[in-house]
Amino acid sequence: RNSARFVSVAAVKAVVSISSVEKAAAGVQQQPFLFATSSSSSVKSSFVTAHHRLISGFVSTTTPGTTTARNNKNNNNNFQRRMRSPEIPSILLPPPIGFDEVVVEGKGKVLQRENEVFYNRPQVVNRDLSLAIVREFQKRRKEEHENDTDQKTRRGKGMYNKVPRESKIIAHLVSEREREHMFATKETTREHPATTKKTEDDEKQKEWVEVKPGTFRWQVVGAEEKRGTAADAAAAAAEQPKVIIEEEEEDEEKKEKPPLEPITILEGMCATGLRAIRYARELDDVKCIVANDLDPTAALAVENNKEYNARESEEVKRRVDKIVTNCGDVRVVALQHEKCFDVVDLDPYGTPSQQLESAVLAPVEGGLLCVTATDMSVLCGNNAEVGWTKYGSYPLKARYCHEQSTRILLAAIQSAAVKNRRYIVPVLSTQIDFYARVYVRVYSSAVNCKAAASNLSYVFQCVGCDSFELQPLGKVEERSHERTGKTYTKFIPGKLSAAVEHNEHGDRKCHNCGWGMNVGGPIWSAPVHDKGWVESVLKDVKESSDERYPGKEKVRALLTNCSEELPDTPLHYCLHSMAGTLKITPPTLALFRSAIINAGYKVSGVHCNQLAVKTNAPSNVLWDIMKCWEQEHPAQEDFKNGKSPGASILKKEPVVKAKWTRVNGAFSKAQMAGETRFPTNPEENWGPKNRATGGRSNKREISSCTAPNTKNSRKQAKKKF
After folding, report:
1. Among 65, 244, 531, 562, which one has the highest count of C-beta atoms within 10 angstroms of its own C-beta?
2. Cα 149 to Cα 135, 152, 600, 656, distances in angstroms
């Protein structure tokens, strides 16, 4: 058994005899990731070099066939579990010449070589979560189809069709009949008057007749009388009772609803194609997966990975053949195939802002749009001016910056959608490790686009304390007409919060400490999760095996936290930050949450910060609770007599008296059940990796970086001397 545990948390390379792995594979649990490396262009018969992750500890080898075991005690106890190690000979086939690594994740396997194509192991949670969400989307889509609640997708036809005739993708997305309708055009030919055949009306005598003041018509003599007679006949026929033919009704009933087509998926930036391969091998009812990338090296890598996976069996070959590789700009692909994909997945290296304008056009009615943003320094306010240029929103550097990142991303998607008369409905919005990931459904409606402004708000953040106020950008009101009494919808601008506009410290001042306020946003202030979706996906993840979701523990913990969040309370407060403002020791999180509940408000945790609380209580109530705690655990007198924001808060007596009686609502269901909510990372340096070099050396060979009088050129000049 010890000889089979050949992997390390630091991803140490281990050389293990295949024979020893075969003997012990049956008694060792399976790992979620596997890198198999051959020491030469072909796999040797007796040795395989592997990188492997082991959550509960790691084993490093010194010589082939021997191992040295060490335990890692820092990991969470609930997250310490060993998974079965697969039999390498039966799972991994010899790689093609020139490849020395095979990445195994779930059922997908991709070839890797010298960081030629980007691959990031920490995003296994991203891929697992996407698979779970797409499965739930297929389930909801089927229910909507059966209940006739799905919306019909209307694509542009004729001159309004944007799909080029030479497109190789469209044949895999829609049926032949649909393509004929899309490319159909009205051919109108004007014949020469000399060759036009004369009709009976042309031979009759015509005259000019004034049909209305200033408008004359050239028509046959007596046509008005005939027209009046025809109108009388039509009126008489309308007065007669309508005869309903039973046979016609039976024919209409016999018309069956067309069957639900399998889903089509667009992966805009596929890199190695691992996500597309996992979609193809692990999802059912998939018609086509378009794996697109602008880099030709990535497109070639997808084809190599398809061939490598197809060698396993005929069933795998049938599944991976659904992947259509395309080398091009994802913006062009999305614009040319408007409303042709059921699922659109964007996972760029950096910001997705340039692709949002076109990405919102690609999904069908009610389609799923999945977007990742990894530029967290921008979204969290470290480079706020860059955030404004990319997302049209000014991020604030505050304790809620990680939740703010998801809401800014949603606001940017909504802004791109409304320009095309589309709107979004968030399903799940998360901040994981070093990136934000959101899942939204896209619909078309001009009325809902007008109401979209009510989902956005500006943020007034105090520069002295943690207090913040939200200013809605728009508001929707239902009004009744004075004379008719009919109700109608009115879209009006949002009104400034009373706490910001007028208080004892003056206009636009924090009503808690009296300091000024910064303005950020707009951000998405409506609910970011669909509770029904989250609970259904969580149930599926809990009931699934470890092989189905390699990062199951973290996915389960993330969904558990999201399911317990308050839906209608944007942003959150950090308990330790509030205590730091008052220079006091903070109460326990359970006591603080109990005091909020005893004051008559709701409270929950946050999926991206285990020390934060999300509550509908106003900021002055939270500060009153902290002031009551300070009375029992006083701060230093020198601090109280100062002019800091915390001193200004403590000078006022609390209006709300805190009750520290513990209540059951202070603990979430997951806490009471003893479930892990924030598992530790499985290994060190669990974060973003370097951009793919495309087979080049690590030194960037770009002219702009080595141009004269630049920082890089000066460094290179110094090295020469």
Report:
1. 562
2. 19, 9, 39, 48
The strand ranges marked E within 270-412 are 286-293, 323-327, 341-346, 363-373
Of 453, 466, 448, 535, the closest CA to residue 494 belongs to 453
Nearest partner of 39 among 31, 50, 53, 49, judged by Cα: 49
H helices within 508-618, ranges in order? Answer: 531-543, 552-564, 575-582, 589-598
Task: Dump pLDDT digits (tens) for 664-685.
Answer: 888 888 888 788 888 887 777 7
User: Which residues 6+ apart lie within 8 Å of 362 measured at CB?
Assistant: 266, 333, 334, 337, 338, 339, 340, 341, 344
Q: Please state whether the peptide bond connecting residue 363 to the residue before it is cis, i.e. omega within 30 degrees of 0.
A: no
CA–CA distance, 456 with 449 (Å, rounded to integer): 12
Euclidean distance between CA atoms 337 and 162, whole angstroms: 7
**287, two tokens:** 């018609």
Q: Which residues pair with 342 in a beta bridge?
A: none
β-partners of residue 60 are 68
Say how many C-beta atoms besides its own lie within 10 A of residue 330's C-beta. Answer: 26
Q: How far is C-alpha 545 from the geometric centre of its chain's CA atoms?
A: 24
At 194 the three-state DSSP class reads: helix
Q: What is the mean pLDDT of residues 646-655?
A: 93
